[in-house]
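Sorry, I am new here, but would you mind making up a protein's amino acid sequence and the tokens describing how it folds?
***
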Amino acid sequence: MIKSIKKWIIKHQNDIILVVGVILISLLSFAMGYIVAKQEEKKPLIFEEPSYFYHENE
């Protein structure tokens, strides 16, 4: 049984490396994005009406 698994791994070695590489790049990209987002937390935008709207109605 181990020999058949070893043969299958050797036969599909390139595909296995490609899949592992894609998974590692995806995890690395997610982790980097998460870290950058945590570092760049900013105050929320607050939209206010300009003061001249209050003077026109008076």
About this structure: The chain has one domain: 2-56. The chain has a mean pLDDT of 86.
